[in-house]
Amino acid sequence: MNSEMQKRLESHRFFAGLPDHFAGQISQHARSLDFNVDALLTKTGQPANEFFLIEKGHVALETHAPGLQLTIETLGPNDILGWSWLIPPFQWRFDARAVEPTQVLAIDGEWLRNECEANAELGYALLKRVTTVFVDRLAHTRMQLLDIYNPRSEDSPFIAPM
Q1: Domain segments of the chain: what residues?
Q2: pTM score, two decimals?
């Protein structure tokens, strides 16, 4: 067992408080990766067989519209990148691009998904954590929409009737 990897895993907010035996198992299916500026960590539509715990650097979540590349959110240290490994059809829903040199722990999502199916305690613990990520991202998106479509903002593309 790689105790250094387990310590790194346990120090990340996503796995904080997870029982040691689960953290030990998961750490055996984790690896450290480094990404240079502009490197893609994920690509929309590609298989999502892993997810990332960001330790250093920042990653932009991007989506595309005709002629546009839009940054949805920028993630940084102690954030998780990726929930698509857990939700069918297990494909990335966004591009993720390093905006500065970035270090992550990559977790084998396919293995972990199978472990969650086999062990309800682990599955429930991780589902609660992933649900928290959903809620946080939804709240962030809501705030962005309020900023963009604020009828009192001079830059707003939307002017509400008074």
Answers
A1: 3-148
A2: 0.84
